[in-house]
Automatic annotation (TrEMBL):
Belongs to the COX16 family. It comes from Hyphodiscus hymeniophilus. The keyword Mitochondrion applies. Required for the assembly of the mitochondrial respiratory chain complex IV (CIV), also known as cytochrome c oxidase. May participate in merging the COX1 and COX2 assembly lines. Coiled coil: none annotated. It comes from the Eukaryota. This is Cytochrome c oxidase assembly protein COX16, mitochondrial. Keywords: Membrane, Mitochondrion, Mitochondrion inner membrane, Transmembrane, Transmembrane helix.
Length: 115
């Protein structure tokens, strides 16, 4: 019984194409023609994507910025100025001894904490 060769038959017209030459060179130098371009693409992509990620984080930092004490309290130009003595006397004038405890309504399915 005859043994058939493992390689496909390629005619002389196909042997002169760029793909055929690349295929034969790839068999001899696989890293140079496949591995090195792949690694170069990964490194170049890292350098090209660095500014894009920087823009992303700069946008996040602009959105989440530190607030001053007045901005935190919601006091702007339209709000009233807070004076510590005035607030103290205003709270001291309230009757803190006359109060009533009220139970908060629970959500449906929530237990009331009593076991």
């Amino acid at each position: 019984m005859a043994v058939f060769p493992n390689r496909k038959f390629r005619g002389t017209a196909e042997a002169n194409t760029i793909a055929a030459r690349y295929r034969s060179a790839l068999a001899r130098h696989p890293f140079m023609l496949f591995g090195l371009p792949f690694i170069a693409t990964m490194v170049a992509g890292s350098f090209f994507l660095t500014p894009a990620t920087a823009i992303r984080y700069e946008k996040h930092d602009r959105r989440v910025r530190r607030l001053s004490k007045e901005e935190e309290l919601g006091i702007g130009k339209a709000g009233r100025k807070v004076d510590m003595k005035e607030e103290y006397y205003r709270l001291a004038a309230k009757d803190l001894d006359d109060w009533e405890q009220k139970r908060v309504k629970r959500l449906a399915g929530e237990h009331d904490g009593v076991l």
